[in-house]
Description:
By secondary structure, this protein is α/β, with parallel strands linked by helices. It has ten helices and nine strands. It has helices at about 40-50, 65-70, 90-95, 95-100, 105-115, 135-145, 165-180, 190-195, 225-230, 230-250; strands at about 5-10, 15-25, 30-35, 55-60, 75, 150-155, 185, 200-205, 210-215. A hairpin with a 6-residue loop joins strand 8 (about 200-205) and strand 9.
Amino acid sequence: xxxxxxGVSHSYGDLRTLDSLSLAGEAHGVLGLVxxxxxxxxxxxxxxxxLQDPGAGTISIGGASDGEGRLGRCAFMPQSDLLLPWYSAIxxxxxxxxxxxxxxxxxxxxxxxxxxxxxxxxxEASRPDxxxxxxxxxxxxxxxxxxxxxxxxxxxxxxxxDAITRAEMQEWLAAALRTxxxxxxxVTHDVEEALYLCDRVAVLSARPxxxxxxxxxxxxxxxxxxxAVTAPEFVAAREEAMRALRDGSR
Length: 250
């Protein structure tokens, strides 16, 4: 389902956050948004998901440009996993199905069928505080994916993880998206993460955010992450993105 952003600007009162942004995300493609802290990346993600409406311009997903229509097509995964501490892993994963009116037994059964694929087999009954950070993020992503929406909006999903776990989760997410492609918008402050997971990366300036560069990733979601991120063409793309970030922050 194609995403189109045309001339979008947004303000909070007198504070202008986004300035005439135009972008497109292809069906089953992964679009990355990187930029300085506080530049409006998360605000843009909320606008895409229909949680807010832009002050100017239009956003459409599969032809739907109203907030309710966009919201109905998007599953949003915030930076915090937001797992309910009194729910087991399987009940947290099945929450999106329960919210759609599915019975507990059926929702659990649907989620259980995916636990092995997501590396969670054997942890169905575990509470969130019994899971590692990476496993919590897998449960959160499974909950997002199982909602069945054609567009996934991911807001810095691995920001709270240590470097080793973060790299492992990037490789895991790449494999999950190869198996079950969706249209994805990924907000991250990590240029390397964006270039590895995304097909295209938009670099935003400091607030009010403008697009200062768009880059095509050399080998998006390659099976061997370490080989991909050390390849000369990847290193060159990372340096180009970092220059754009520095220029846009001035």
